[in-house]
């Protein structure tokens, strides 16, 4: 009996716990094995250093030439960021001249082999674009670097939101003249990249001197570029996309060349700076860019004046019919100084040389030395008071001078002709001034009004009226002097 | 023995052998079988040393407390530092080995906060909660230069690392994050890697559609799910901040505006972060 009570008591003791357990619990939870990443297995991607890359200064060919570096378009870079390129240019005997004011552009382009602009933020003016178009048409080369990471940040007045203005619009103001464009985007590749999705690897290249020897290049934060009539130099892989629409466009790439193959646009310039210049084949690319920049040879025309001579010396032949008077000697010494300023030595010769750079100075009295050039450029002197030219028709003989440029593979010859010794001296003076702004010019022939002529002195002059008569009726007021003209 | 005495005897035995044990059993069961608790841990701040330590204390409490059978993580966080996020992530793993954990996203579980979310058993979001932003953001150190009045013993003593190394370190951190997402959301993601790891931040409904989150729901739904996974009923929901001894306060993770009135959404020191930086607020 007692035993039964103990069982009942035990059951009563347990029952609340049982009920409570059933009230609160619906079973025994089984926990799954919790998987986590194997953190120790992760490693930072290694830098693709290419120790056998080109660009070694000992193995480059001497090219010479001048590259104009644009600094007038709010260019968003520091010189040390493109040092690998400027160093490669200098290693090839090239010279980098900075464009620091817009008025110098036309002058610098006369003798430059290439013009480089890096991440411009101000648009090129119509005049600048025309100058650069003509420069490229003459055989000069243009390199345009943009970069998706270079932006000017402004804040919206209403919302306060930041707005980034990049370099695409400014670059396009120039590139549009060459049927090229850079897009206001950035390229990325989440599958195949160099350490980060925005660092794009390229291993398909358009055939060009710029891509010679390249197997793979890496660009860092780049814009896409297009050249519908030209060539995409760095072709984006199918996995490479534009930030504009997160899509791949085979017409876009990391770099492009125009149809004439003398203007290149590259969507990035970070690859020029250390350490990225030593990754993949970037050093080879930089060497190719330097070769490209210095490989531009302008066809010599009078637009290049006064930079018509590429040699270290120029031979000057003065026609025997010109007596070397004091005035002529002074003019010739001025010519010598001007040429020395351009690192060109002058050598006076008695016969017209058959090769090398030459300046021939003579009069319209055609001599056997002058005649071949006159014939070559269809200039006729035997028309009495006029000289006949193909480009400008009949030109008054008096007070005008003629320049003819004969650019050949043997050297360039500049012929200076005028009617009288005084006009010749004036023409030399104009040439010494380094400008043909006062001349009618074509590629090879220029006619310059030099303001004086033998006729000026031979024409009878009207005598000035007596002073008393001239002041009549205008007492106290100075009278304007009559301006002498060649015709009197 | 009279009938009355028999009755009294039965009552006395009943009291002695049934009622008293029942009362004692009731008292004992209350002590032995406490009402199950679904603990709530809130992260309504960026993840940095202070907030991470608070979370870890609560997680450890949840691990140790027998009455806590499941945990709900409630997020309104843009993420934060890498190391603090990883620290919480590892503690969460220890908790999950013992007890189910469910996420309830309020306004936002972005970047590092989402990193933590994927280490839970189920993710609820509100229809317009901001979810995702999977990825890493790093502020590179400046290019090294020397300062007249600061003497160091190596070129990177002042700057920490070359810029290029920092970039690559960001990529390494990314691998850990992406792997955590792949493991945590295995079999649930309906979108490809190019979408999931694009760094986008989605509204809750989109997040559910893409498998970034499991369902639209509230904290209550999360508690019910946690209880279901823990196989408990008639539970109580308890904020673990109090029992874990979390003090209120904190330090500033974000930059202050010059007038001190506004937290700008940028961390107040350079580094690598698992952080969503929203656009600046409209003036």
Folded structure, characterized:
Chain A contains 11 helices and 26 strands. By secondary structure, chain A is α/β, with parallel strands linked by helices. Chain A folds into 2 domains: 57-294, Rossmann fold; 302-457, 2-Layer Sandwich (Chitobiase, domain 2). Chain A has an 8-stranded mixed sheet with strand order 2-1-3-4-16-15-13-10, with helices on both faces. Mean pLDDT of chain A is 88; it is low at 454-461 and 467-488. Chain B has 283 residues and is α/β, with parallel strands linked by helices. In chain B, the strands form 3 sheets. In chain B, strands 1, 2, 4, 5, 6, 8, 9 and 10 form an 8-stranded mixed sheet that branches. In chain B, α2 runs parallel beside α3. The longest helix of chain B is centred in the N-terminal third of the chain and has 30 residues, at 3-32. In chain B, 42% of the residues are buried. The interface between A and B is large, with 47 and 59 residues.
Q: Could you give a short account of the major beta sheet of chain B?
A: 8 strands, mixed
Low-confidence stretches of chain B: none
Shape of chain B: elongated
Strand segment count of chain B: 13
Mean residue pLDDT of chain A: 88
**Number of helical regions of chain B:** 8
Write down the domain tally of chain B: 1
Name of the CATH first level of the largest domain in chain A: Alpha Beta
The fold-level CATH name of chain B is: 2-enoyl-CoA Hydratase, Chain A, domain 1
CATH superfamily of chain B: 2-enoyl-CoA Hydratase, Chain A, domain 1
Please give the radius of gyration of chain A in angstroms.
Answer: 38 Å
């Amino acid at each position: 009996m007692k035993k039964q009570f103990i069982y009942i008591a035990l059951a009563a003791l347990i029952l609340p716990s049982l009920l409570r357990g059933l009230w609160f619990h619906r079973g025994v939870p089984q926990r799954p094995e919790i998987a986590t990443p194997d953190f120790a297995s992760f490693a930072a991607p290694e830098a693709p250093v290419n120790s056998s890359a080109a660009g070694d200064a000992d193995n480059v060919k001497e090219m010479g030439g001048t590259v104009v570096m644009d600094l007038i378009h709010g260019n968003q870079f520091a010189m040390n960021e493109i040092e690998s390129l400027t160093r490669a240019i200098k290693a090839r005997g090239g010279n980098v001249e900075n464009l620091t004011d817009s008025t110098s552009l036309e002058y610098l382009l006369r003798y430059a082999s290439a013009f480089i602009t890096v991440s411009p933020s101000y648009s090129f003016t119509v005049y600048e674009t025309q100058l650069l178009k003509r420069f490229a048409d003459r055989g000069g080369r243009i390199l345009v670097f943009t970069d998706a990471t270079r932006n000017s940040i402004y804040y919206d007045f209403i919302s306060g939101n930041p707005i980034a203005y990049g370099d695409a619009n400014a670059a396009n103001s120039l590139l549009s003249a060459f049927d090229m464009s850079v897009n206001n985007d950035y390229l990325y590749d989440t599958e195949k990249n160099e350490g980060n999705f925005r660092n794009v690897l390229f291993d398909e290249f358009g055939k060009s001197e710029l891509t010679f020897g390249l197997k793979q290049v890496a660009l860092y934060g780049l814009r896409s570029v297009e050249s519908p009539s030209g060539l995409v130099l760095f072709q984006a892989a199918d996995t490479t996309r534009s930030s504009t629409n997160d899509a791949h466009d085979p017409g876009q790439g990391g770099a492009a060349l125009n149809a004439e193959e003398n203007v290149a646009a590259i969507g990035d310039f970070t690859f020029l700076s250390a350490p990225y210049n030593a990754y993949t084949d970037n050093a080879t690319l930089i060497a190719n860019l330097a070769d490209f920049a210095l490989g531009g040879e302008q066809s010599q025309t009078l637009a290049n004046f006064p930079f018509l001579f590429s040699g270290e010396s120029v031979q000057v032949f003065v026609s025997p019919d010109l007596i070397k008077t004091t005035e002529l000697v002074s003019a010739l010494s001025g010519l010598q100084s001007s040429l020395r300023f351009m690192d060109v030595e002058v050598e006076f010769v008695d016969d017209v040389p058959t090769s090398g750079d030459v300046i021939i100075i003579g009069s319209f009295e055609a001599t056997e030395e002058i005649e071949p050039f006159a014939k070559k450029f269809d200039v006729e002197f035997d028309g009495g008071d006029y000289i006949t030219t193909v480009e400008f028709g009949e030109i008054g003989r008096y007070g005008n001078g003629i320049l003819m440029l004969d650019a050949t593979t043997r050297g360039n010859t500049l012929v200076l002709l005028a009617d009288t010794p005084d006009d010749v001296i004036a023409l030399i003076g104009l040439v010494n001034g380094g400008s043909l702004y006062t001349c009618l010019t074509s590629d090879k022939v220029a006619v310059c009004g030099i303001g004086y002529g033998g006729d000026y002195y031979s024409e009878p002059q009207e005598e000035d009226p007596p002073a008393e008569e001239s002041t009549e009726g205008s007492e106290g007021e100075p009278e304007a002097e009559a301006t002498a003209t060649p015709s009197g | 023995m009279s009938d009355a005495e028999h009755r009294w005897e039965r009552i006395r035995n009943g009291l002695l052998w049934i009622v008293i044990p029942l009362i004692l059993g009731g008292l004992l069961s209350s002590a032995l079988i406490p009402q199950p608790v679904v603990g709530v841990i809130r992260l309504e701040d960026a993840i940095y040393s202070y907030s991470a330590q608070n979370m870890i204390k609560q997680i450890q409490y949840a691990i140790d407390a027998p009455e806590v059978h499941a945990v709900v993580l409630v997020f309104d966080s843009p993420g934060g530092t890498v190391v603090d996020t990883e620290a919480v992530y590892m503690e969460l793993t220890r908790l999950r080995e013992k007890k189910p954990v469910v996420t309830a996203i309020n306004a936002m579980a972005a970047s590092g906060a989402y990193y933590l979310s994927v280490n839970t058993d189920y993710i609820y979001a509100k229809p317009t909660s901001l979810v995702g932003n999977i990825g890493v953001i790093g502020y590179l150190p400046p290019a090294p230069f020397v300062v007249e009045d600061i003497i160091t013993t190596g070129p990177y003593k002042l700057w920490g690392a070359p810029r290029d190394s920092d970039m690559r370190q960001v990529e390494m951190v990314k691998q850990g994050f992406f792997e955590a997402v792949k493991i945590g959301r295995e079999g649930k993601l309906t979108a490809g890697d190019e979408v999931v790891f694009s760094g986008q931040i989605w509204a809750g409904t989109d997040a559910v559609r893409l498998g970034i989150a499991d369902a639209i729901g509230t904290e209550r739904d999360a508690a019910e799910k946690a209880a279901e996974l823990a196989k408990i009923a008639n539970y109580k929901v308890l904020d673990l901040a109090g029992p874990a001894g979390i003090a209120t306060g904190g330090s500033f993770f974000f930059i202050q505006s010059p007038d001190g009135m506004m937290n700008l959404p940028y961390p107040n020191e350079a580094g690598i972060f698992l952080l969503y930086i929203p656009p600046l607020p409209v003036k």
